[in-house]
Specification:
With 225 residues, the chain is mainly beta. It contains three helices and ten strands; from the N terminus they run H-H-H-E-E-E-E-E-E-E-E-E-E.
């Protein structure tokens, strides 16, 4: 009797185990439950998923050319032979520049500046022309295709001529700074620039002529590629 009981229990255990296993080609109980994912559904979802968005920035410009117009504000110049400073009045300023990228956030360029202030000498105003030819080094910050912020320094050769008492042209060295903000408008950019020019060294055969930084404001248009 004991042997029959053990045999009967063994047969019952084997039968229950076989019943729990699905027949070939039959879905498992878990997969037949509502909401349970079918076999291979994750692979199908991955295959049908849209490609990842391209988060890379638009291609950066490698160069740009700009022209601007503005005003050179009032200042003063020091004339060594007179041992005094003379006031200057504001005047028209024209500026052209070309810049080329030399790094991801750095550009180098060249510029030509032409300004027309007047100088007051003993109560009389005399027209003057300042022409500067030089170079710039600028940082570039902002998203590609968006607003670009460009702080930098400028340096160059400066020539000053006028109809004042000293008729000889004045030659000097310019050191300046710029802060340019370029705003995209259509296919072009509108650059707004604030900066200053100076002349720490310069003069002619008669006297030295120097001046501290004189600010300017300018705006214009630029394009690049």
């Amino acid at each position: 009797m004991r042997l029959d009981s053990i045999t009967f229990a063994t047969l019952m255990l084997i039968g229950s185990t076989a019943a729990a296993q699905p027949m070939p080609g039959q879905a498992s109980p878990a997969s037949s439950q509502p909401g349970a994912p079918a076999s291979g559904s994750y692979d199908v979802a991955l295959q049908n998923a849209p490609p990842p968005m391209d988060t890379q920035d638009d291609e950066e410009e490698s160069w740009n050319v700009g022209v601007k117009a503005g005003v050179l504000t009032a200042g003063s110049v020091y004339v060594e032979v007179a041992d005094r400073s003379f006031d200057t009045s504001a005047g028209l300023l024209l500026l052209a520049n070309v810049d080329a990228m030399v790094g991801k956030r750095l550009s180098m360029g060249a510029f030509v500046l032409n300004a027309h202030p007047s100088v007051t000498v003993l109560g009389t105003d005399y027209d003057a022309t300042i022409t500067t030819l030089g170079g710039t080094i600028k940082g570039r910050f902002g998203p590609s295709g968006g607003v670009s912020i460009r702080p930098g320094i400028a340096f160059g050769y400066q020539l000053i001529s006028g109809d004042g008492p000293a008729t000889d042209d004045v030659k000097g060295f310019d050191i300046g700074a710029v802060l340019e903000i370029a705003i995209p408008v259509g296919g072009l950019r509108v650059p707004l620039e604030v900066g200053f020019i100076s002349q720490p060294a310069g003069g002619n055969d008669a006297t030295d002529l120097t001046f501290a930084p004189i600010p300017y404001l300018a705006g214009g248009v630029e394009f690049g590629g």
